[in-house]
Amino acid sequence: MVFDKKKIYDYLDGKMSPFEAKQVEEWCRDVRNEELFYAWLDEWERGRLLYSADPEASLEKYQSLLDQAERSIDNVALPVTELRWIDKVGSLFQNRRLWAGAAVVVVLLITWVYFPHDRLLIREYHTGDHETSMLILADGSQVVLNANTRLEVPRFGFGGATRHVTLHGEALFSVASTQDKRKFVVKAGDMAEVVVLGTEFRVLARKDSTEIKLNHGKVQLLYRGARSSSVALDMVPGDHVVFNSSGSPTMKGKREEIAVPEWAIQKFRFEKTSLLEIVRLLSERFHLEVALADSKMEALSLSGTYEAHRGEELLAIIAEVLDLDVRSAHDKHILVSKSD
Amino acid sequence: MGQDEGKISRKNEAAPPGEGELDSKDGSETVMIDSEQFIRGIFETDPRLGCELLFRRYYGALCSHATRFCASRAIAEDLVAEVFCDLYAQDIFKEINSSYRSYLYKTVRHRAYNYLRQTLRRDAGLEEVAYRSVPESQQPDELAHYEELRIDIEQALQSLPLHRRKIYLMHRFEGKKYREIALDLGISIRTVEVQVRQASHQLRNVLKGKWGARGEWEDR
Question: Can you say how many angstroms the Cα of residue B100 is from the centroid of all Cα atoms in its chain?
Answer without folding.
Answer: 15
